Amino acid sequence: xxxxxxxxxxxxxxxxxxxxxxxxxxxxxxxxxxxxxxxxxxxxxxxxxxxxxxxxxxxxxxxxxxxxxxxxxxxxxxxxxxxxxxxxxxxxxxxxxxxxxxxxxxxxxxxxxxxxxxxxxxxxxxxxxxxxxxxxxxxxxxxxxxxxxxxxxxxxxxxxxxxxxxxxxxxxxxxxxxxxxxxxxxxxxxxxxxxxxxxxxxxxxxxxxxxxxxxxxxxxxxxxxxxxxxxxxxxxxxxxxxxxxxxxxxxxxxxxxxxxxxxxxxxxxxxxxxxxxxxxxxxxxxxxxxxxxxxxxxxxxxxxxxxxxxxxxxxxxxxxxxxxxxxxxxxxxxxxxxxxxxxxxxxxxxxxxxxxxxxxxxxxxxxxxxxxxxxxxxxxxxxxxxxxxxxxxxxxxxxxxxxxxxxxxxxxxxxxxxxxxxxxxxxxxxxxxxxxxxxxxxxxxxxxxxxxxxxxxxxxxxxxxxxxxxxxxxxxxxxxxxxxxxxxxxxxxxxxxxxxxxxxxxxxxxxxxxxxxxxxxxxxxxxxxxxxxxxxxxxxxxxxx
Length: 545
Prior knowledge:
alpha/beta, Rossmann fold, 6-stranded mixed β-sheet, 5-stranded parallel β-sheet, 18 strands, 40% helix, flat
């Protein structure tokens, strides 16, 4: 299936499945040459799949795709071997520019060799070089590295030697350096601090060409997006046509209000139709057995009983027939039942609460090159938000608190019997072939699974519980990782960028549920919305020396 090349992004009648699971169904979407559209929806709704199809790395079952010739995509994982260097990533992004540069040099050499076509060739090469700004390429590379917070990472460093967040920012800088005609961005702010996010916003607002952004970051979308597209698989159940895209011209507040009103209308229509169906079914079942006169005929009526009885039978037959027709029509065209909203069910109880004293205490703890000396106390009901620029050591601090990292200085005191749980920023399951249900059962044990079934947490829809975890989206894998922690609540719950890869709805529900968590909570986050709403203790990390 070859795409049509144009100055805009567009899909028409797009459907795509993985095995017997339909992910996209009859999707229609257009992003104009001057538009920056935010793509939103629940985890597993198909946002990343749609981006991959638009990028040309996946072939849909059917549909028409229109896109610019040079369409670039930001992946959630950098598509380079860990042994490659940071510099190699940038040189790959500059491949077209380097090719123009080589052609210019070759054309200049040809002029010295008295080639009769050299002047025309050199003129064309010079025009292409000026258009691509060949001479400013290295300066642009350095400006992007600085703006996205990776200038301190040497170009000779291997990708396997830097963090996942740093790799993501290197990939983003390389994509912007490449200057494609259209941008497809999959969660671009997941690993950006405030300064880097503000830098990216400026870059995108000045971008020439269509931009489609799958993101959960409300602050970012409010700043950048010219419109929103809701990719909601549930909508196909509503209209029966498989259309699963709705366009919103406003911001997130408008979107959420509209969606809530839409669902209320859907529920009311469903309830009304079910009531009418009930009435019609009773009519069909009861009318044929019930005669309207309800009493025996008087003596002076008996002589007309046969005549009236025949007419009554015909009337009843007509009423039953009409009711059957209306029932069949309504059953055929009825609105499907709205699927249950996937909600975070809250933190289940069952943890032995340590009510008094200090649970964890760090005094002058440091990790060489990763975490400057820090001191803190975690008590049974602590609520602590850890902030700081990328590289300041937020993930390292959580690793120390979780006893997963050794320290180079300071002391760590842990309460005896303390149980600590960590929701890591980058989820990795050792065996991607195992199902979510199997992993849940193996991790928790039979007794706990009976007490807290995976389905009771509202984090994965039942249809996905038996799928291999490797087939789940990144967001769904993070939901499963969250379920594995909260099903047996730890005394201290550590969350590293908890809203990354989660839909906005679930991220909000998680934040609200954590307010009543039966233990201590420590969160490391860049999320500007979360930080603005935070009412607990805050710890800002400055960085290691």
